[in-house]
Design goal:
Blueprint (H helix, E strand, L loop, with lengths): L18 E3 H11 L4 E4 L6 H10 L3 E4 L3 H15 L3 E5 L3 H4 L2 H9 L4 E7 L22 H5 L5 E4 L6 H13 L5 E7 H5 L1 E3 L23 H12 L4 E5 L1 H5 L3 H11 L2 E4 L14 E4 L6 H9 L2 E5 L5 H4 L3 H5 L2 E5 L9 E3 L3 H10 L33 H11 L5 E4 L3 H9 L8 E3 L8 H13 L3 E6 H7 L3 H6 L4 E7 L4 H10 L14 H8 L5 E4 L2 H13 L4 E6 L9 H4 L18
Parallel strand pairs: 2-3, 2-4, 4-5, 5-7, 6-7, 9-10, 9-12, 10-11, 12-13, 13-14, 15-16, 15-17, 17-18, 18-20, 19-20
Antiparallel strand pairs: 1-8
Helix pairs in contact: 1-2, 3-5, 3-18, 9-15, 11-15, 16-17, 16-23
Length: 587
């Protein structure tokens, strides 16, 4: 029998008396700002926003399995579309689960808006469930989120949202971009506000349009241009900022005018054509020896859209110390040199405008030849596939308009080193925090946002952390191909133990798991394949490409195989390069 307390109550007409619920206004403003998807996990203190998203219909609500993955879905959405990613979560544990994902977005400069439910204001400091107001001994959510956001505010009353929302969106998209957080008490979400006057279209100078970039500083522009004009040989190292600024064409134009070699950071393989004769390879600990060789031969190293953090700089410090460095981008680099700040796209155009208009020939170089490493030990049971063969199979099947998301560990190092970026898709590696399991949500967010086939390349350790987001891909028919390199270990940790700590501990070696069989049993509608060899992997990937929904492929690798990762190379039998010697720290 249904009681009066169980009866569903129909919300009042959102347009009644010229007012709307705050959440209806919020949902409408997200749609007007160009947001097409909201990712998150529901709960009592965020359910009103989900109700508004459902009723509004302009923004699609996607329910993840975990709030960390919901943030990475918003992150992948933002990286592939250039639009603001939005995530929503309830209070308490749901809110706290956002933290590592937002930390990645902060470190990698990804614009994400987090809408975080809170208990009703009247219950704050009075023992409310999941209270994070900072009152009466509770912790303050603002103090948690403020250090990893560009903007963080508690919406104390409904009318305040009219000003706070555009501020949060603008802060997320400003330089440096990153997360913005709005804390939304439940009663504030439910409150009614008078509809604000309509503003102009956000795509034509309205409230959410990006702030016009300032002109490059003339003095800095002159110094950088003169350094480049006088250089005989130039190495460009391009970073993720080129993708964020949609400045690939400007980068290619400048490289042509300079006759430069072009290297990329590990998280920016897609910003320059990997098959172009100018392409020198990947810089840093997962990169190619040719980059260090070009750097030693260069008169000037030009950094474009990268601060050159340690993962991109590993093995290059000695050569950098002997080379003049100039940098273009909104933030100063981690190495000394002349810097032209501000908007990267404008800076690239301005520097090109100071150079002769014709292209210069590129000096000869070896190109991104793979590092020669000892092959994997003989397989104990004949089931394992070497990384190089597996990556070659992925390369053979990968559509050139696909997106690729590469997770952490030995799998990630191998893919970054060996797999060329698709010509017309993103190649994303989350090196900001380097969190395992990032790719499962991020790949889903990218696939839903763009409708393109998206590849997730991850190890079994990453799968065990957040691989159940496969369910989300099945639920929403996302065109994602999950490729899990299963070495039944946290293999990079095991190799570190062997090389650096006197022997492998059993902690990081796992009992063998048949992932494909398990996933197939859990999701009968999902094509799940256990590939026995590289040929089987390629065939499974081609079948997935022909489908319209998700697919899952697992293959077994050997945890003893050494990946192309600079900190391990001094322990191989190969001759060390001069820059490989010494300590290179990477987690």
């Amino acid at each position: 029998m249904t009681t009066t307390t169980d009866t569903a109550v129909t919300p009042p007409d959102p347009l009644a008396a010229g007012t709307v619920r705050l959440v209806d206004h919020l949902a409408g403003e997200l749609a007007r700002a160009g947001v097409t998807h909201l990712f998150g996990v529901g709960g009592a203190n965020i359910e009103d926003l989900y109700d508004a998203i459902h009723r509004g219909g302009a923004v699609r609500g996607i329910v993840a399995k975990h709030e960390f993955s919901a943030v990475t879905m918003a992150d992948g959405y933002a990286r592939t579309t250039g639009r603001l990613g939005v995530v929503a979560a309830t209070s308490g544990g749901g809110a706290m689960n956002l933290v590592p994902g937002l930390a990645e977005a902060h470190a990698s400069r990804v614009p994400v808006l987090a809408l975080v439910g809170q208990p009703p204001t009247g219950q704050e400091g009075r023992g409310a469930f999941q209270d994070s107001s900072g009152k009466a001994g509770s912790f303050d959510a603002r103090e948690v989120f403020a250090p990893l956001s560009r903007f963080c505010a508690r919406v104390e009353d409904a009318e305040a949202l009219v000003e706070l929302l555009p501020q949060a969106m603008a802060a997320a998209r400003a330089d440096p971009s990153g997360p913005a957080v709005l804390l939304l008490p439940k009663d504030v979400q439910q409150a009614r506000i008078r509809v604000p006057g309509r503003r102009t279209s956000p795509t034509r100078g309205g409230m959410y349009a990006p702030v016009a970039a300032a002109r490059p500083d003339d003095g800095a522009l002159t110094a950088v241009s003169q350094a480049l004009r006088g250089a005989g040989r130039v190495l460009v190292i391009a970073g993720e900022g080129v993708a964020a600024a949609d400045a690939r064409a400007e980068l290619a134009e400048l490289a042509g005018r300079l006759g430069a070699w072009v290297a990329v950071t590990p998280d920016a393989k897609d910003v320059f054509n990997n098959l172009d004769p100018r392409f020198a390879g990947v810089a840093g600990v997962m990169g190619h020896a040719n980059v260090a060789d070009c750097l030693r031969r260069a008169d000037v190293c030009l950094l474009a859209g990268t601060r050159l953090p340690s993962l991109a700089r590993g093995g290059l410090d000695r050569a950098l110390a002997g080379t003049s460095v100039v940098s273009l981008g909104p933030e100063p680099p981690f190495v000394a040199g002349a810097t032209l700040g501000g908007d990267l796209r404008q800076a690239l155009r301005a520097v090109s405008g100071r150079l002769p208009p014709h292209s210069r020939p590129c000096p000869r170089h070896e190109g991104p030849l793979p590092t020669a490493l000892p092959g994997p030990p003989p397989s104990r049971d004949g089931r394992t596939v070497p990384y190089a063969q597996a990556v070659a199979a992925v390369r053979a099947a990968l559509p050139q308009d696909a997106h690729v998301f590469v997770d952490a560990g030995n799998t990630g190092a191998s893919a970054v080193h060996l797999l060329p970026a698709p010509r017309d898709g993103r190649f994303v590696v989350a090196v900001g925090m380097g969190g395992m399991g990032y790719t499962f949500g991020a790949g889903i967010g990218a696939a839903l946002a763009t409708g393109r086939r998206t590849y997730v390349l991850a190890g079994d350790g990453a799968f065990f952390m957040h691989g159940m987001e496969v369910h989300t891909a099945v639920q929403y028919a996302a065109p994602v191909t999950f490729v899990v390199f299963n070495n039944n270990a946290h293999a990079m940790c095991a190799l570190r133990e062997e090389f650096l700590q006197g022997g492998v501990r059993s902690d990081d070696l796992f009992t063998r798991t048949d992932l494909a069989a398990g996933v197939a049993a859990a999701f009968p509608s999902l094509p799940a394949t256990g590939a026995a060899d590289a040929a089987g992997l390629r065939e499974a990937l081609l079948r997935a490409n022909a489908g319209c929904g998700p697919a899952f492929v697992a293959l077994e690798c050997d945890p003893r195989e050494i990946p192309p990762f600079l900190p391990f190379q001094s322990f191989t039998e190969n001759e060390e390069s001069p820059d490989a010697r010494g300590s290179v720290h990477a987690g």
